[in-house]
Amino acid sequence: MQEASFQGLVKMLLWGFVIYYIIKFLARLFLPVLAKKMVDKAQQQFQQQYQNQQNNQHQNTAKPNPNLKSDKPREKNKVGEYIDYEEID
C-alpha cells in the first residue's frame, strides 16, 4: 500500500490549478461565441413564429367564413308590450 506524500499533494494541487486556469481561459474564448449562436438561433425561431402568425391572420381575414350567418342584427325575444305611464301626485 502506498502512502500519500507531501510531494504528491503539491503535484495534485498544481495540476488542479493548471487545469482550472486552462478551462477558465477557454471558457472566456468560447462561451461568448456559443451564447451568440444560441441567441441568434432563438431570434430566428421567434421571427419564424411571428411570420407564421401574421400569415395565418392574413389568410383568416382574407377569406369569409361560410358558416357565419348574415350580418343582420338578431331580434331580441319580446316578453310583452311596453306600456307608457304617468305618475300621479
Summarize the structure.
This protein is mainly alpha-helical.
Written description of the protein model:
This protein is mainly alpha-helical. The protein has a domain of 58 residues. 64% of the residues lie in helices and 0% in strands. It has 1 helix and no strands. The longest helix is centred in the middle third of the chain and has 57 residues.
Note the main attributes of this structure.
single chain, 89 residues, DUF4834 domain-containing protein, mainly alpha
Give the total of beta strands.
Answer: 0
Pattern of helices and strands:
H
| CA radius of gyration | 38 Å
Q: What count of helical segments does DSSP give? A: 1
**Main β-sheet, in a few words?**
none
Strand content: under 5%
Measured as a percent range, the helix fraction is 55-70%
Overall pLDDT level: 84
Secondary structural class: mainly alpha
Shape: elongated
Distance between the termini: 118 Å
Contiguous uncertain segments of 5+ residues: none
So what's the oligomer here?
single chain
Which secondary structure elements does this structure contain, and how are they paired or packed?
Blueprint lengths: L5 H57 L27
